[in-house]
Design goal:
The chain is α/β, with parallel strands linked by helices. It is built from nine helices and ten strands.
Length: 223
């Protein structure tokens, strides 16, 4: 199964030019079997949508955060694309981004607002089955995270230059970290640049994490 692992939607990101249903149809046309929606969860998104979120408590913020994922899943169910929920998380006062797979809606509703934590406190509440990758670690301004705190690294990012991606792959090799690829979809120009091809079928997020941990996939890398 061909899966996109890093996707943002217009519903939750002002820098994205396409809605979730449009994105899912585009990936369907590109021959992908599945898409993981990894919208940003960080304080900047609260600023972007401060009018819509005025008066909302934690539950209302999570409701809003899930808009893009739910719209994508509805379209995926309609056209035959498996849509799963992930997250791209950044903690307040920091610059690094983390792709997380293996959490669900209940985790978001039952946890503190994740951006208000730090990496250590987040890892303390994260389900043991979940995995954390540092996203595009060699972009300007970012710093590499202690590899002992990570499962892996996004070594190919469709919105990052080849030399920075190469650095990420070298870093993963040096520290024995798992590797993934993602398009980092924000516009149609990013369509199908990255992702992975799994040997086994993916039915739900548990299958996705199992296959990521097992390493039974090939990475897609297109500039």
């Amino acid at each position: 199964m061909k899966f996109e692992l890093h996707t943002h939607t217009k519903e939750n990101d002002i820098c994205v030019s396409m809605t979730a249903p449009e994105i899912i149809r585009a990936y369907k046309g590109a021959g992908y079997d599945g898409v993981v929606i990894t919208n940003h969860f960080f304080d900047l998104s609260l600023e972007w949508y401060k009018e819509e979120l005025a008066g909302c408590g934690r539950e209302g913020i999570v409701d809003y955060y899930l808009k893009g994922y739910k719209a994508a899943k509805a379209e995926g169910d309609s056209v035959g694309v498996k849509v799963l929920m992930g997250i791209e998380l950044r903690f307040d006062g920091t610059v690094n981004d983390y792709l997380v797979y293996g959490i669900d809606e209940a985790f978001l509703y039952n946890s503190p607002l994740l951006n208000t934590l730090n990496l250590d406190s987040f890892l303390n509440i994260l389900p043991e089955s979940a995995v954390v990758y540092q996203a595009h670690p060699f972009r300007d301004g970012m710093t590499v995270t202690n590899p002992k705190k990570l499962f892996g690294v996004e070594v190919f990012n469709g919105g990052t230059s080849a030399d920075r991606n190469d650095f990420a792959e070298l870093w993963a090799d040096r520290h024995g970290l798992a590797k993934i690829s993602g398009s980092d979809f924000h516009s149609i120009n990013h369509l199908a640049r990255g992702g992975v091809v799994f040997k086994n079928d993916i039915g739900d997020i548990r299958d996705l994490v199992r296959e990521l941990k097992g390493g039974g996939y090939e990475m897609i890398k297109r500039y």
